[in-house]
Write a structure and sequence with these properties.
Length: 189
């Protein structure tokens, strides 16, 4: 993953828990990088170790940290850094999700070594759709995707609910999320 991701993890922890806690997390993760360079690739394992150490030190499930990080990523990293690109990808949550595959293609022009997940949509309705998530990375990042969708809901000022329909960690070949907004929020998943 690019340094931008690790910098965002650092930002989220420092904002909520302070720099001293971040330094403890880095030490527990065995990360001795002074400062992350945004456009430099780092091993994925380093990011996983940071999340595991944050889970331990903050006494919070890794899934909760990943969900929070997904929302933080949209609001405090992606939107400030790539706001025009994000806004060009849709003017509503639904439009953005439908154009998500094209968004990652554009981001790859900035970060050529990026290994992005792939997304597609099915069962698209007026206020819900199924979001398909495929990645070459190990299973377990689904809570991050949930957080991303929640952050996108905040970005578009649209209340949203996300429910996992299929999980790669449970044997499916990819994960599928039911995303509901507007009038569909009260509907059962």
């Amino acid at each position: 993953m690019y340094g931008l991701v690790n910098k965002a993890v650092e930002g989220m922890v420092c904002t909520a828990h302070g720099e001293a806690t971040w330094l403890r997390i880095k030490a527990a993760a065995g990360v001795d990088v002074e400062g992350f360079v945004s456009n430099q690739p780092y091993p994925d394992e380093m990011t996983y170790r940071l999340v595991a150490a944050a889970s331990e030190i903050l006494n919070a499930p890794a899934e909760d940290i990943l969900r929070s990080f997904g929302e933080y990523w949209v609001m405090h990293t992606a939107l400030p850094a790539y706001g025009p690109l994000m806004r060009a990808s849709g003017s509503t949550l639904k439009e953005f999700l439908l154009h998500l595959p094209h968004f990652h293609t554009r981001v790859q022009t900035i970060y050529p070594e990026l290994v992005p997940p792939s997304f597609s949509c099915s069962d698209v309705g007026e206020s819900q759709l199924d979001l398909h998530y495929r990645t070459p990375r190990p299973a377990g990042l689904e809570p991050f995707v949930e957080g991303l969708v929640m952050g996108l809901g905040r970005m578009f000022e649209t209340p949203v609910k996300v429910h996992v329909l299929e999980h790669r960690g449970a044997g499916a070949d990819h994960s599928v999320f039911r995303v509901r907004w507007g009038s569909a929020i009260g509907d059962p998943a």
